[in-house]
């Protein structure tokens, strides 16, 4: 039977579900916390070697633009090496069941994450195939929006939608629109995608359901539901400051895309409705049935499969009716369009998911889970909260989350349960939520957008604007410390 190391001086926190997706704002699992193994490897040569492997793997990820190596490759190998080291150590100590159980728990984290992401990506690919984003692009072009207006429109929508549609899905949707509207203009796509990632992460920080970290804090009872919303203004500041600066570098001209009359393929609007129904199902699974929201997402994939079956079976009758109608009207253009109609196949949409991104998530989850099992995450949190003031510790952890990922960082903080005020718990919620925007690999939204806008939105392209994003990060913290000063005197 597995016995997890735990500091007896700290109250034990129930750990029901581990690490679900950082993405869908409405749909995250109950709080889960970092697992530390029985053998402390943080001061051993083996532990140092594992950290070096992780750092090397991340260095290769950061150099993706230069070396043209997909980001999943180094982290997959690093995960194998780190867990191989753990397995060898625990076998030598006659505790192989412990390491095996820990690996399975970490693998479960990724499995829920992957299935959740896979369904979201499948729906997005389905909407793209049904020309939803082409139609939106065509509408924007017909409206005559210039690049600067498009920059603010997509960023504003990302900030508004992410608290209810989750930061990951919102970022993917806005990225799809950006790449369609500004097709070929890599400079604008890079800036607009940075803006969307920052906006989506900021929008998710002031809602209990906006990010997995906010949900974890709420589920743990550290902050009441309504208290999260006092982070709205700091989150808005976090989005606006870099957006204002970056917008000054946007060309004041219109996209060079050719105007076209885009017609939605059959079933497009119903697929959008099914996507909303899928999100609703996932929310109900979590809030009403207390089951992992991935159950609702996979059920939603079944909705799409049944609808695809209906589209295929009814296609001949639909084409015949439309041919008769267009022939009576003499609409030759519509008749020509009918010749390009093909059956809808949901598995083609699944195949088009960004598998490099999904495998990258696997590598990151397994690497961080392995380092946490060695004791490094607990060591980091203990050093910060024991040796530093809670304010500075939370600010630094927000920056750390841009490299390590905010979810394991929050796991470690909640595991320790430092004696902090509501203001400090809100601060770590804010910093962990928006700190990931400092790097493209610092949040689920950034990683997913890197995959979707491959070649246009890159790690180095984002890094060039990190100082501007850091200004927004600092400003949001200052605004929170100022506006919500009273909350720093209230302890749980």
Count of discrete alpha- or pi-helical segments spanning 4 or more residues: 22
Query: What proportion of the residues is helical, as a percent range?
Result: 55-70%
Structure classification: mainly alpha
How many whole angstroms does the radius of gyration measure? 23 Å
- Major pleated sheet: none
Given the C-alpha coordinates, what overall shape results? Answer: globular
* Low-confidence segments: 1-34
> How far do the termini sit from each other?
34 Å
Which range does the strand content fall in? under 5%
User: Could you report the average pLDDT, rounded to the nearest whole number?
Assistant: 78
Write down the oligomeric state. Answer: single chain
Total number of beta strands: 0
Order of helices and strands: HHHHHHHHHHHHHHHHHHHHHH
Structural notes for this entry:
By secondary structure, the protein is mostly helical. It is 69% helix and 0% strand. Helix 7 (167-181) packs antiparallel against helix 8 and helix 19 packs antiparallel against helix 22.
Relevant terms:
492 residues; 69% helix; mainly alpha; disordered N terminus
Summarize the structure.
With 492 residues, this protein is an all-alpha fold. It is built from 22 helices and no strands.
Q: Would you spell out the secondary-structure blueprint of this structure?
A:
Elements: H1 45-62, H2 64-67, H3 72-92, H4 96-129, H5 132-143, H6 147-165, H7 167-181, H8 186-204, H9 212-219, H10 232-247, H11 268-287, H12 294-329, H13 332-338, H14 346-351, H15 355-374, H16 376-387, H17 390-404, H18 406-416, H19 422-434, H20 444-452, H21 459-463, H22 466-483
